[in-house]
Design goal:
Blueprint lengths: L4 H26 L3 H22 L4 H25 L4 H24 L6 H6 L2 H4 L8 H19 L1 H9 L1 H6 L4 H42 L3 H33 L11 H23 L12
Helix pairs in contact: 1-2, 1-7, 1-10, 1-11, 2-3, 2-4, 2-10, 3-4, 3-10, 7-10, 8-10, 10-11, 10-12, 11-12
């Protein structure tokens, strides 16, 4: 394995993006809205595509505007389907994000015919190409770092409100914390995070990092502060481990299989998502084995 400066930037960009996604992802899970993060990651696609078609450019501001509209519509429509259709929340989210995602793929295909837009990059990302710059710090690193800083700042400023609205909605409303407004703000923040990450890592890594690092941290920690810090660590670990697997471990494994498949590397963003899942199952297995076995008392035995 020949590690270069390009590999370093790939890991840095991936880690910053993953950690930026992990922060709103933790609060989505505490609100029992994990599927909303998945839905938003899919549903912002039509918003992005429409912004491309209307503005005729790939500027960040139109992309964010389109994603925000699509993200808020997803939350509102899924709530309306849940109430009017009398279906559970998961089903209502499934209906909305499947329709939005399918429409988004069609619109992205249309936009690709008029603009310099590759539909595969929207889904799988192009992290390796995104960090290639003539000199200095790559643009994607600045964007990812800015998104992480914004999410960390908002999580710090509204930590009490986010925690209260997640654990006890009625109590938070009674003490003056607008839980519904806080959740709407979380939806908006998730939409911004998703669209800022799409250009480099694609929707697959965004979906993974919104859910998996926080879910892994929940297996080990009980305080919200601990869950947030642990999720950031797991997100960074998955980014480093995923890139190492993409450029070294997986190509070496494939070369030993029958047929001797020889490849230089695989998609780093996809392997980062895969590594995040492997970390989760490793922690899950470790915590399951650590729990003491529950023994059933035998009759007559004190």
């Amino acid at each position: 394995m020949n590690w270069t400066a390009l590999d370093t930037w790939i890991v840095i960009a991936g880690a910053l993006t993953a950690m930026a996604c992990a922060i709103p992802g933790v609060f989505l899970q505490l609100n029992k809205q994990s599927m909303l993060g998945d839905a938003i990651s899919h549903a912002v696609l039509p918003g992005i595509a429409i912004a491309y078609l209307v503005s005729g450019s790939r500027d960040t501001l139109p992309m964010i505007g389109g994603a925000l509209v699509a993200g808020v519509l997803t939350a509102l429509l899924s709530g309306a389907v849940e109430r009017l259709g009398r279906v559970e929340q998961g089903a209502s989210l499934g209906v909305v994000f499947c329709v939005f995602f399918a429409a988004g793929l069609v619109l992205v295909r249309i936009a690709a015919d008029h603009l310099d837009l590759d539909p595969s990059c929207v889904l799988f990302g192009s992290l390796e190409l995104a960090v290639i710059e003539s000199s200095g710090i790559p643009r994607v690193v600045w964007l990812s770092a800015s998104t992480l800083a914004l999410n960390a700042l908002l999580a710090t400023l509204f930590f009490k409100e986010l925690r209260l609205s997640a654990f006890d909605t009625r109590f938070s409303e009674s003490v003056g914390v607008p839980a519904r407004l806080i959740r709407l703000g979380l939806t908006v923040l998730t939409s911004i995070t998703a669209v800022m990450a799409f250009e480099s890592v694609g929707s697959i890594l965004v979906i993974a990092m919104l859910i998996v690092p926080g879910a892994t941290a929940l297996l080990l920690c009980r305080s919200v502060e601990g869950i947030l810090l642990a999720s950031l660590g797991f997100a960074a670990l998955a980014s480093l481990g995923g890139h190492l697997m993409a450029i070294s471990a997986l190509p070496a494994l494939l070369s030993t299989m029958p047929g001797g498949i020889q490849i230089g590397s695989v998609n780093s963003a996809g392997m980062m998502a895969t590594c995040s899942g492997l970390v989760f199952f490793t922690v899950l297995l470790a915590t399951a084995l650590r729990k003491p076995a529950v023994t059933t008392p035998q009759p007559g035995v004190p």
